[in-house]
């Protein structure tokens, strides 16, 4: 029975796998947060455009000055909200990009250990093959020696 392959850095590999999963979860959470910020920005932009259309329709029909002033005040408020939301989107994009870089680094670190394990397994298999060949040769030698004595 041949010995079983045992990789001496298995604990390191498991640890790196855990780190990779944690970084991946963080990245996914930041991606969801970015999606929410973008969705909010789209809602604000839609609201602004709808208000513009509504104001244009009211202007065509005739609108009093106080109502016009209310529309402009509301639209200015929406503009400020849109700028604030654009900043939030940029911040979320930046955080997500930073996390993506961390995730890639973590994946590279794990891949190095994975590759080392592959190489060690290949070496082990080759050593086992050579040992098996030697054993077979020894058995054949003993068998041949017995036949010659007989």
What does this entry look like structurally?
It is a single chain. The chain is mainly alpha-helical. The protein has a domain at 10-110. It is built from 2 helices and no strands. Helix 1 (10-61) packs antiparallel against helix 2. The longest helix is centred in the C-terminal third of the chain and has 85 residues, at 65-149. It is rod-shaped and about 125 Å long. The two termini are 31 Å apart. The model has no long low-confidence stretch (mean pLDDT 93).
Order of helices and strands: HH
Radius of gyration: 35 Å
Q: Estimate the global geometry from the Cα principal axes.
A: rod-shaped
User: Main β-sheet, in a few words?
Assistant: none
Q: Unreliable stretches, pLDDT < 50, 5 or more residues?
A: none
**Strand content of the residues, in percent?**
under 5%
Helix content: over 70%
Note the gap between the termini.
31 Å
Number of DSSP helical runs: 2
Mean model confidence by pLDDT:
93
Task: Give the topology.
Elements: H1 10-61, H2 65-149
Helix pairs in contact: 1-2
Q: What are the main properties of this structure?
A:
150 residues, mainly alpha
Describe the structure concisely for a colleague.
This protein is mostly helical and 150 residues long. 91% of the residues lie in helices and 0% in strands.
């Amino acid at each position: 029975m041949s010995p079983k392959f045992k990789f001496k850095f298995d604990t390191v590999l498991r640890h790196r796998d855990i780190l990779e999963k944690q970084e991946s979860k963080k990245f996914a959470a930041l991606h969801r947060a970015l999606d929410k910020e973008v969705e909010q920005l789209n809602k604000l932009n839609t609201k602004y455009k709808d208000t513009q259309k509504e104001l244009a329709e009211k202007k065509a029909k005739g609108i009093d000055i106080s109502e016009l002033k209310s529309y402009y005040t509301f639209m200015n408020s929406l503009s400020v909200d849109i700028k604030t939301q654009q900043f939030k989107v940029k911040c979320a994009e930046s955080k997500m990009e930073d996390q993506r870089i961390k995730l890639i680094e973590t994946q590279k670190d794990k891949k190095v250990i994975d590759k080392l394990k592959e190489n060690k397994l290949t070496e082990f298999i080759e050593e086992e093959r050579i040992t098996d060949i030697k054993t077979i040769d020894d058995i054949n030698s003993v068998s041949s020696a017995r036949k010659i004595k007989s």
